[in-house]
Automatic annotation (TrEMBL), chain A:
Protein name: Exocyst complex component
Function: Component of the exocyst complex involved in the docking of exocytic vesicles with fusion sites on the plasma membrane.
Phylogenetic classification of the source organism: Eukaryota, Metazoa, Ecdysozoa, Arthropoda, Hexapoda
This protein's record includes keyword Coiled coil: yes
Family note: Belongs to the SEC15 family.
Domain annotation Exocyst complex component EXOC6/Sec15 N-terminal: ranges: 36-204
GO biological process, any: intracellular protein transport
Automatic annotation (TrEMBL), chain B:
Name of the molecule in the record: Ras-related protein Rab-8A
Keyword vocabulary terms for this entry: GTP-binding, Lipoprotein, Membrane, Nucleotide-binding, Prenylation
Membrane topology field: Lipid-anchor
Molecular functions per Gene Ontology: GTP binding; GTPase activity
Organism: Pieris brassicae
Region (Disordered), start-end ranges: 174-211
A Pfam short name: Ras
Length: 761, 211
């Protein structure tokens, strides 16, 4: 039993319950068991001891061996770490290298691909730079072509790079720039032709002039010149056509560019509007005052002509840039504007020479236009108008000449001392000097120096006038007629005007007389002037002309002045009158102022002898009429209150003197007419002095009455004055009977006269 | 009735052609001058009224042609003149020498008591002078005639000359009037007319004048 239990316990690992029971319930109980256990333990200890003894040696040996291993291991360890360090060291360098290699490989790859890409881009870039340089060199048309290539071929081929997009965004800008630049070129061109067109016009005008001057002789002469000078000198750089002066290439280029850009229509529109504006400008004279010098007029016409010659040239070469409709329209408005300009400016010209040059230029201008097939319409009309203005200008100029002649004229007959002087006058003025020829020197012409001077000036005028009409295509007859018209206009208007101005000053009688004579000689020379005209113009001589009236107004003026002159002198004499109205006894002698006056008049009349009868008649009549009128006024006017019989007789005496003067036939055949002026005064004086009241009152109102010219009022006025004087002088004679009767009669007559007066109203 | 003047004096200008008679007259009557020379033909006259010691004096001044060919016309006017201006040109020796001939002319044709005066005209042209003032004065003293140098152009002494001559005539006339007429009679030149001639056709010889 106890053994068993220990075994059990030893054999069994768990379920130790029954072992425990047996310990408790077993025989010896607990002690036993403890004993057993001790035994057991001793047994085990013994066993262990035995075992340990057995193994001890081995163990020590093992430990020894282990220690040995340990040192070996340590050795190994050191060796291994050594190797490891070595390896580590070598691999580190390797790693670096390999990494470098990897990188280099990658770079190499990149480079290759880049080169590939770059090669694709290269043409694009070269093209682009070509484009740039083309633009720079202003070769816009190739530039445009390059641009096209760039845009449509090269750009799509290259990938979507930023710079590509940059370029492609640049393309429209470039295109615009090209368009702008070509526009700028066009503007330059327009400016250029504006500058050149006067030269073009000048060349054209020159050629026209040469063409007009072309005649057989000239051609032969030129050929000869050419032969002598050699052909080289002739064919030097003179352009064959005027338009060759202008380089049209910018225009054509521009046109091409715009055609390529698809903007041809716009371009044509632009060009036309620009040119139209230019046309508008060109007809406005640049110099401002065309009438100042022929140079400005020339350049004006050159500009206009050049402008349209160029347009006309473009009509044929400009590929539709200029249409004939457009040209026609533009030229139409331009020429009317130009004609207007010319009209206004020429109207201001006051220099005939300038007028002539202008006219010459316009004629050339018209001819040149015809050569280029451009219509000339308002211009020939303008030339006609200018002709009128020219005549006006000339007349104005000659007014000054005439005025000068007249201002410096002495109005005395020309006297020549010798043959030379005589011939000088005869050369300048057509005068039939047969009578004068035989006289001894000094000879005296009947006219003053004004006549030849004016005659010469009229000829000068005609020369000047005809200068204008040459080259206008008028026939000789037409020219001559117009020249005659202008000449007579000059004489009747300008010269007569100058004469009239002359008459505004008070002129001495002798001058007036000479003026009248001079005008007659001038008139008589008119046929010679006409002959002169027909000689110059080569037309037939026209003789019919109412020449006599040409200076009639001037002569009338002169005659009027003569009359006024005489009347004024008569007035001066009569102002010297100093009648004593209460004179008792007449002196039996005419008053001195009357004899002075009549003597003076006789003298004057002899100096008027050269005048036409009409003028002399007028002069004498005017003087006599004034005398009669003044004498009558002396008697009848209110200034004199009382008139004595003696004074009346004195006046009667003076009137008789005057009547004698009239009756002495100062102008043969005028006697009765002159006496007529004194008739009423005479009748009045007769009536009073003969106291013939009965027949006056009886005959009154009857035809052919003796005192028919005496009105009752006048008779009464004078009678009253007589009565006044008698009352003053003969206070004491009232007592005499016959005096009383006379006074009574006087009163009765006065009463009757008053009645008659009242009847007449 | 009031007269427009108190005295009427007839004056005459004589002298060689071109000495300036017409210019002197023009200066006196119009107070103007005209450079251009227009020789007088025959005879002409101008009238100017001047005031002399409160009297209105009308001067009728006859301007004669200096040229020889008009001599017959002009001498006819001598007789009626009350005063005569003898004009010479200080720049023209000949015209001065001719003054003596003119004086002889006066003596032959004019009334004996006619007032005379010598004028040396154009004294403005000093550079061209040929006749000195002293010679003029000398001549005047010789003939006992008043003398003055004038310039029609510069209006020098022209007025003075006419006034002096007119004043002398007036003085002489008044003296004569006092001698012949008792005071109170009407004054006036027409009283001096001679009455011994019959009425004739007008001629200068028949003119009423002081004898």
């Amino acid at each position: 039993m106890t053994n068993a239990t220990i075994q059990e316990i030893e054999g069994i690992d768990d379920y130790w319950g029954p072992a425990f029971r047996s310990v408790y319930e077993g025989e010896g109980g607990h002690e036993a068991f403890l004993q057993q256990l001790d035994e057991r333990i001793k047994q085990h200890d013994k066993e262990i001891e035995k075992l340990c003894n057995f193994y001890y040696q081995g163990f020590i040996e093992s430990i020894r061996e282990l220690l040995e291993v340990r040192s070996h291991a340590e050795e190994l360890h050191a060796e291994i770490s050594n190797v490891d360090a070595n390896v580590k060291e070598t691999t580190d360098g390797l790693c670096v290298r390999s990494e470098e290699l990897i990188r280099a490989r990658r770079v190499e790859l990149n480079i290759a691909s880049t080169i590939e890409k770059m090669e694709l881009c290269l043409p694009l870039l070269t093209t682009y730079s070509k484009l740039k340089s083309q633009v720079e060199a202003k070769r816009y048309y190739p530039a445009l072509k390059t641009l096209e290539q760039l845009e449509h071929v090269l750009l799509p081929r290259v990938g979507p790079y930023a710079w590509c997009s940059h370029i492609s965004s640049d393309i429209p800008k470039l295109r615009q720039a090209i368009q702008d630049a070509s526009m700028a070129d066009l503007r330059d061109f327009l400016e250029n032709i504006r500058r050149l067109s006067p030269q073009v016009g000048a060349v054209a005008l020159k050629q026209t002039q040469e063409m007009l001057g072309r005649s057989l002789e000239n051609i032969i002469k030129n050929k000869k010149d050419m032969a002598t000078l050699g052909p080289s000198s002739v064919e030097t750089n003179t352009p064959q056509s005027p338009h060759e002066l202008v380089d049209f290439s910018p225009l054509y280029r521009c046109l091409h560019i715009h055609t390529v850009l698809g903007a041809k229509h716009d371009f044509v529109q632009y060009y036309r509007s620009q040119r139209r504006q230019q046309a508008r400008l060109v007809v406005i004279p640049a110099a401002g005052n065309l009438h100042d010098s022929i140079q400005s007029m020339k350049s004006y016409l050159n500009a206009v002509l050049g402008f349209f010659i160029l347009e006309e040239h473009l009509l044929t070469t400009g590929a539709g840039l200029v249409s004939s409709d457009w040209l026609g329209e533009t030229w139409g408005s331009a020429r009317s504007a130009a004609a207007g300009t010319l009209r206004t400016h020429t109207a201001l010209v006051t220099d005939p020479t300038l007028m002539l040059s202008i006219k010459h230029q316009i004629v050339l201008f018209i001819n040149a236009l015809k050569c280029y097939g451009l219509p000339t319409e308002p211009l020939p009309q303008l030339l006609q108008e200018m002709a009128e203005h020219y005549t006006e200008v000339l007349m104005q100029r000659w007014v000054a000449v005439f005025r000068d002649i007249l201002d410096n004229a002495t109005f005395r007959p020309i006297e020549v001392e010798n043959q030379e002087q005589y011939d000088a006058v005869m050369d300048t003025f057509p005068y039939d000097g047969d009578e004068l020829e035989t006289q001894a020197f000094p000879r005296k012409f009947p006219f003053s120096s004004v006549v030849p001077a004016v005659y010469v000036q009229v000829k000068e005028f005609m020369y000047a006038w005809l200068k204008y009409s040459s080259g206008l295509g008028l026939g000789g007859g037409g020219r001559a007629a117009a020249a005659r018209h202008s000449t007579s206009l000059l004489l009747t208007r300008s010269f007569t005007g100058c004469l009239s101005a002359l008459f505004r000053r008070a002129l001495p009688l002798t001058q007036l007389v000479q003026i009248i004579l001079d005008t007659q000689y001038l008139e008589s020379a008119t046929p010679y002037l006409y002959e002169f005209i027909s000689n110059i113009t080569g037309s037939e001589l026209v003789t019919a002309q109412p020449a006599g009236s040409m200076f009639q107004t001037a002569r009338d003026d002169a005659e009027k002045q003569i009359c006024e002159n005489l009347q004024h002198k008569v007035d001066e004499f009569l102002d010297l009158e100093n009648y004593d109205w209460l004179l008792v006894e007449p002196s039996g002698q005419a008053s001195s102022f009357v004899t002075d006056m009549l003597g003076y008049l006789t003298g004057v009349l002899t100096s008027l002898e050269q005048l036409p009868r009409r003028a002399r008649e007028a002069a004498v009549t005017a003087a006599v009429k004034r005398i009669a009128c003044r004498l009558r006024a002396l008697l009848l006017e209110g200034d004199v209150r009382a008139v004595s019989a003696g004074a009346l007789h004195q006046l009667d005496l003076d009137v008789i003197q005057c009547e004698q003067f009239a009756a002495s036939d100062p102008l043969p055949g005028l006697r009765d007419q002159l006496l007529e002026h004194f008739a009423s005064l005479r009748q009045l004086l007769d009536l009073i002095t003969s106291w013939d009241w009965s027949s006056y009152l009886h005959d009154i109102g009857m035809e052919g009455a003796k005192y028919a010219l005496v009105s009752p009022r006048e008779a009464a006025t004078l009678l009253e004055k007589l009565r006044e004087a008698e009352q003053k002088s003969s206070v004491f004679s009232v007592l005499k009977k016959n005096e009383r009767d006379r006074r009574k009669l006087l009163d009765t007559v006065l009463k009757q006269l008053k009645q008659l007066q009242n009847q007449d109203g | 009735m009031a007269k427009t003047y108190d005295y009427l004096f007839k004056l005459l200008l004589i002298g060689d052609s071109g000495v300036g008679k017409t210019s002197i007259l023009f200066r006196f009557s119009e107070d103007a001058f005209n450079i251009s020379f227009i020789s007088t033909i025959g005879i002409d006259f101008k009238i100017r009224t001047i005031d002399l010691d409160g009297k209105k004096v009308k001067l009728q001044i006859w301007d004669t042609a200096g040229q020889e060919r008009f001599r017959t016309i002009t001498t006819a006017y001598y007789r009626g003149s009350m005063g005569i201006m003898l004009v010479y040109d200080v720049t023209n020796e000949k015209s001065f020498e001719n003054i003596k001939n003119w004086i002889r002319n006066i003596e032959e044709n004019a009334s004996a008591d006619v007032e005379k005066m010598i004028l040396g005209n154009k004294c403005d042209l000093d550079s061209k002078r040929q006749v000195s003032k002293e010679r003029g004065e000398q001549l005047a003293v010789e003939y006992q005639i008043k003398f003055v140098e004038t310039s029609a152009k510069d209006s020098l002494n022209v007025e003075y000359a006419f006034y002096t001559l007119a004043r002398d005539i007036k003085a002489k006339m008044e003296k004569k009037q006092e001698a012949s007429n008792p005071p109170g009679a009407r004054g006036g030149t027409h009283q001096l007319k001679s009455n011994d001639q019959q009425r004739k056709p007008p001629s200068w010889l028949s003119r009423c004048s002081i004898l």
